[in-house]
Amino acid sequence: MRKILIIGLLISTITTSFAQKKVLDHKDFDSWNAVKNQKISVDGNTIMYLVEKGEKDSHLKIKNNKGQLIFEHERAEKPVFTNNTKVAIFTVKPWKDSIKELKRNKVKKDKLPKDTLAIYNLQTNSFSKIAHVKSYKTPEKWDGYIAYLLEEIKAVKKEKDSSENDTIKREPKDKKKEKIKKVGKDNGYHLVLRDLNTTKQDTFKFVTNYIFAKEGKQLAFITTGVDSKVNAGVYVYNLENKQLTPVFEANDKTKYYQLNFSDSGKNLGFVADLDTTKVQVRPNELFHWTKGKPKAQKLLDPATAPKGYRVSSEGNIYFSKDETKLYFGLAKPPIVKDTTLLDEEIVNVEVWTYDEPRLYTVQELQVKNDAKKSYVTAIHLANNKLVQLGSEEYPSTQIGNEGNAEFALLSNPEPYLLESQWTGNSARDYAIVNINTGNITEILSKISGRVRLSPNAKYAYGYNTVDSTWFTVNLASKKITNLTKGKGFYDELNDSPVNPRSYGAAGWIENDASILLYDRFDIWQFNPENGSSKKLTNGRASKTSYRYIELDREERFLNRNEKWLFSTFNETNKHSGYFEFNPKNNKGKQLISDAFRFSQPLKAKETKDVIFTKQSFKVYPDIVYSDLSFKKQTKISNANPQQSEYNWGTAELVHWTSLDGDALTGMLIKPENFDPSKKYPMIVNFYEKSSDGLFNHKAPSPGRSTISYSFYASRGYLIFNPDVNYRIGYPGESAYSCVIPGVTSLIEKGFVDKDNIGVQGHSWGGYQIAYLVTKTDIFKAAESGAPVANMISAYGGIRWWTGLSRQFQYEHTQSRIGGTPWEYPARYVENSPIFNIDKINTPLLIMHNDADGHVPWYQGIEFFVSLRRLGKPSWFLNYNEEPHWPLKMQNRKDFNIRMQQFFDHYLKSAPMPVWMKRGVPAIEKGINQGYELIPTTD
Hints:
By secondary structure, this protein is α+β, with helices and mostly antiparallel strands. Among the domains are: 254-356 and 376-388, no CATH class; 656-918, 3-Layer(aba) Sandwich (Rossmann fold), CATH 3.40.50. It is built from 15 helices and 57 strands. A hairpin with a 7-residue loop joins strand 9 and strand 10.
């Protein structure tokens, strides 16, 4: 009896504990933190990260590897360690709430508070701040200095040249005072070079651009000039001997572009435009300076450039690693406008041509890029020999082996651009060019899939989607080797009417000795010359995929002298982990595998220490510190301890069989205090296949297009997310075949309230929901975001963000029709909800925005006005000037409130809100939201 009493009290205590937990509400979204910008020091002893609460100010935290706080600061952004980890640098933003109030008071943008640069020395614990910093830079591979531009308001009076004669000095009293030179976009800002060890600093005035060399201790900058001692021009400051060299001097109206050092700092390149007139074809000149030389040398100008080309101000300047070549851009002359025409004399007409490679809407969006287009060109610095690599015939150029390679890879997509309108493929022709001679050799034609260079540029390699084959091309011999023809290195689960894609590549072994490729589960090593291969892992038997983790972002090869780290993922139970592989004996061991989603570790540069995250539906992905054995783990961040105060939820896998006989998997989210003897309302939410994300954490947030799983679970809903398999030509029917049996299988378990099931989805999910409600009344309410209601009219639409035709989507990709409307008219009609809209009995909430660049918003309008015509209960939300989903926080919050009120009304019998009863009249838009609930009457 006593034992029964104790058990009863324990159950009562647990029940009371759950009952006392809070239920998530919209206001709680703002209290949830996100961990961002994780950094680990080169020695692995210090971790730095930002904590951002909702859309409030970020908070910087610096901790040691035991998780102990060393330093913190509010309003921090963009934190970085110097290479030696002695110093942490970040910017301090003005308070966001203060900025809002100033904007509310109509304070002009240029009068708003500016960013502050913050410098914290971890060795001395000293901290300093510099106000009004416009930008800052630190050396990439050496330490001790920082350079920053100051947005000062102070004016600097221009000094007179000492050579001015007495007549000039004795100016009449009524003559206007000499203008004071001010800092700004045109004149430049003051550049401060600060020694982080001594805090000593030098200032260079009126600087418009500056750059550190990657490896050499050199700083280059451009100034519009200060006085007779410091003229306008380009300067190089040597930080080893403190010597300032004016490498190029010109008038203060000269424009400079593409200032860049070689890695060592021994070479500097830039483009200068010395012409002060408004001529439309700018006479750009290319300059090169070598350390030890007093002045920069002009390499190219309009007179010496190749015929029909000019030096580009947009083409990047960079040097080969061995510093024997300078690469820059040559451009065609711009199209010159007639500037004498008045607006009323200019013809504004778009001429669209049926056989031009790019659709006019694509051209229109790419006008700026077309105007900036340039072609990569090399100059051999030993003899100033110019070799043009890219051209109109082959506009794209890949430079290999850090610029040292003998050959460059050229490509041209233009012959296949027209057909890409309906195929969706980006096929290209490829050639190689000898960087020494300029000789071009064609090697591949109409390859659907990108071709790249191996790290040492011995091979071109790629995956051709047409025959699902990886291949290599020996650039010296031009020999083509098919590596995977007839083998399963393509997407085994492809269910779209398009050639399957590859699983990708892990990388190359040093000296281009072999390439590592992925199949669905395993990693294979291939000889690029003869195609022989060996399997390195054995994942297929257990349905575990292995993927290489790049721990050194600068690595060009996989190092066979070190052990490799792989990620693992089990398709059956969705567990992930880390696997250590020894390339010397081709053996490995599982280091960790668990019911979490593990991130890619971030490794310390000089040690084996790492930071990573692990997450599940319950566990937020906080930062964890360990080493590459992952045996001892220390939790560094604790972003959301408040989660324990709320009724949360659990996630599990569920299985059922589709109407087509396919075994399917999905996710079921249950409230934390789930009781199988009760019946719960359920919302179905899906998009393609999602069950691999079982262990993804879903923090409560005002999502832009989907329900918040933790939010609805906390409020007593079940959420069901089913995977969908597709049959080509029948996407709507496929969704029905997969989703509805999944729903009924859960109803049979006894805990789903079959009379209160909703469905929600966006874009492709929104379309499928629009289709489903024409075929079933199982759903009591539905939210359909950015749906396609009419596949015939949508087929002829434009994706306005890219200018692309939507044809390829229906013929070959996600919409999966498999052909044109004139080839398969019945498929287009059968899959379009608009033709069966009279069958809908489910109340619908539709969200489609007028700036949608993915799905034309008239699709949502077609859907809504047809429902309205039939008197079907429906509501339409259009967030003005928002894209495919609402991005602005106020709109996201509004959408989430309305969606929750909509589902609560239909699935929980909650009172109807005012906006559902009478709408929000246009005259009240932005004033009255109509959230108030209408009291029910008995």
